[in-house]
Amino acid sequence: MFGALSFISNDLAIDLGTANTCVFARGVGIVLNEPSIVAVNNTNDQIEAVGAEAKEMLGRTPGSITAIRPMRDGVIADFNAAERMLGYFIKKAHGRKRFIRPRLVIGVPSEITQVERRAVKDSAYRAKASEVFLVEEGMAAAIGAGLPITEASGNMIVDIGGGTTDIAVVSLAGIVYSKSVRVAGNAMDEAITQFVRREHDLLIGERTAEKIKIELGSAAPLFPPKQMEVKGRHVLEGKPTTVILNDQEVRDALAEPVRMIIRAVRDALERIPPELSADVCDRGIVLSGGGALLHNLDERLRTETGLPVQVAEDPLSSVVLGAGKMLSDFNLLRKVSID
Fold first, then answer.
1. If DSSP codes are grouped into helix, strand and coil, which group holds residue 187?
2. How many angstroms separate the CA atoms of 227 and 288, rounded?
3. Under a CB-based contact definition with an 8 Å cutoff, are residues 165 and 74 in contact?
4. Mind listing the pLDDT tens digit for each residue in 254-278?
5. 3-36+72-139+320-338: CATH, from 3.40.50.300, 3.40.190.10, 3.40.50.1860, 3.30.420.40
6. Rounded CA gap, 75 and 180, in Å?
7. What whole-number distance in Å separates Cα of residue 297 and Cα of residue 31?
8. Regarding beta strands 285-288 and 240-246, do their DSSP bridges make them parallel or antiparallel, or are they unpaired?
9. Is the pTM of this model over 0.85?
10. 243-280: buried (b, 16+ CB within 10 Å) or exposed (e) per residue?
């Protein structure tokens, strides 16, 4: 009796990221982009906040509330929190309408295990999805960045997210080479946190480390040089303290994660077939994801590889835009989705 009147299927594409979750609604565009964080009340197990509101609570919650990141390294680390977060985002994307059973296209890292795939699918079904398709983030990012993935030529994309860096070479709507390394934006934040503690005896939180990365982080020298005030707690004295950080210090802090990403890109270039290598030499490398916004990363990669490097037009949204395009092209979706 309820039938079609009650269960409206509004298809969604979701970039379920370690740092942020982005949702695309077919026919509308991006309807939601919020941090992948859930604040849970430990007393009654109720959700206090999700997304941007929960991020504001990071490092500031009382003992009765815990701010949880359900995703780690691009995969689900807390099944229960991930399911509740997904359900909240799906409802919010649909204006909190009831009885919505959307089809979902979800971007996942290329080297996700069978168990991790099942966890993502189960969470989506329990969040009331009617059908779930998983697509490798490298492929989704390539489509979102506007690369001609159906042509018989190699296109290389490097998607640097929060938990993983996904490298893919795409040709004829298939992935010829893919690699996922668990070094990306969060590893950079952690490297900054450890550096500031080691060099300045200062404890800082996640949000401060991210702010330092955005303002001062770079992969090659900045002109003119930059600096900023950083506030935290002194390790030994235990009192609030302010220090001045400059871009050279932050570059030193980020040296190892940046080196690991560059090494993964060079490995990819060595492993792809010669014909596609020639295509990549001509077309170059496209960077996407939040990590692509690290100052001078494109310049550093250009120097290290000798290839043209460009940043996607909308690097933060490439994965979800690509997944969103597949909602309107089910032939392509069937070709590129993974079991």
1. helix
2. 26
3. no
4. 999 999 999 999 999 999 988 889 9
5. 3.30.420.40
6. 12
7. 29
8. unpaired
9. yes
10. bebebebbbebbeebbebbbebbeebbeebeeebbebb
